[in-house]
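Input structure tokens:
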């Protein structure tokens, strides 16, 4: 198959780029790390994008359309990236227009969690479905929703922020500045913090530094780790219940670094959902699905956007017609 589009996933730590064929298969990839705050300035990021796209174009017969997933609120009406949590100072930036000028061809941009969802719907865990919820449990909690085949973006591109569902009123301070958001509990740092609270009550073994340490300690039957995971399960289910009741998705996809331990918590979260959600709303959403594309989901979904005439419509399943 020939190369048809380039997709970029621009994150706070680096830029992942892929070249895809018409079926969404990755033909080539490249990655550029971003070191420190100075490399997150828009001029520095643009320079890296130009270099990375140049490398990927080298593998294609001609210039390809480009899509980019970038954290933040993308107002598709004005073409402005209104604000980005990972790139301070990028406020009301016409990022798509700037990249189009830089690369000499149309570039489309969208929120990183939204393009990750599109990647999973195109060729991943939710291929071919039209009603999908995805949570990415990483440094923060990203979320994307496909509703009746349309990407949920909100009036000015600031919707679909499931990570900031209020979970514990007056609770932990969240990255968004508010208190008690889902993200503050079920992101990687959130889980680690929960585990440290439990560890400090009853220390045994090494104090957890990362989510993996919590799952390892659970494997070793450390009571603090078991309590931490029980709280994590309650918190994740507590965040998913309102999403199930609002959207009644046909699939709930869980991605991000914490999903590396998916098999260790998914069954427990499902049990909790069955206990807490209205059965009719939950019908079809279980079992939970682990994300299938890993770190490529955002870049692959961004490539889909570059190919799509109507950018908010769901990709067709690669299985369609089979
Ligand atoms: Zn928040």
């Amino acid at each position: 198959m020939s190369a048809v589009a380039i997709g970029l996933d621009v994150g706070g730590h680096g830029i992942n780029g892929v070249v895809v064929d018409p079926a969404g298969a990755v033909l080539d990839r490249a990655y550029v790390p971003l070191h420190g705050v100075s490399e997150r300035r828009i001029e520095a990021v643009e320079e890296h994008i130009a270099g990375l796209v140049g490398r990927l174009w080298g593998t294609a017969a001609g210039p390809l359309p480009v899509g980019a997933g970038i954290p933040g609120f993308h107002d598709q009406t004005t073409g402005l990236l209104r604000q980005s949590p990972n790139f301070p100072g990028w406020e009301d930036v016409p990022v798509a227009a700037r990249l189009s000028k830089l690369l000499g061809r149309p570039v489309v941009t969208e929120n990183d969690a939204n393009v990750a969802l599109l990647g999973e719907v195109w060729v991943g865990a939710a291929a071919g479905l039209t009603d999908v919820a995805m949570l990415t449990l990483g440094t923060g909690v990203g979320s994307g929703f496909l509703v009746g085949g349309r990407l949920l973006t909100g009036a000015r591109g600031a919707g679909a922020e499931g990570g900031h569902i209020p979970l514990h009123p007056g609770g932990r301070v969240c990255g968004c500045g508010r208190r008690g958001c889902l993200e503050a509990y079920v992101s990687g740092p959130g889980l680690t913090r929960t585990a440290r609270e439990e560890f400090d009550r009853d220390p045994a073994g090494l104090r957890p530094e990362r989510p993996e340490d919590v799952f390892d300690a659970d494997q070793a039957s450390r009571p603090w780790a078991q309590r931490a995971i029980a709280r994590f399960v309650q918190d994740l289910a507590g965040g998913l219940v309102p999403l199930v009741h609002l959207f009644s998705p046909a699939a709930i996809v869980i991605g991000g670094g914490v999903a590396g331990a998916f098999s260790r918590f998914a069954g427990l979260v499902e049990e909790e959902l069955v206990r807490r959600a209205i059965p009719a709303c939950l019908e079809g959403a279980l079992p939970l699905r682990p994300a299938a594309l890993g770190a490529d989901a955002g870049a692959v979904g961004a490539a889909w956007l570059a190919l799509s005439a109507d950018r908010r419509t769901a990709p067709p399943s690669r299985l369609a017609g089979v």
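Residues 318-322 have pLDDT under 50 and may be disordered. The longest strand covers residues 26-33.
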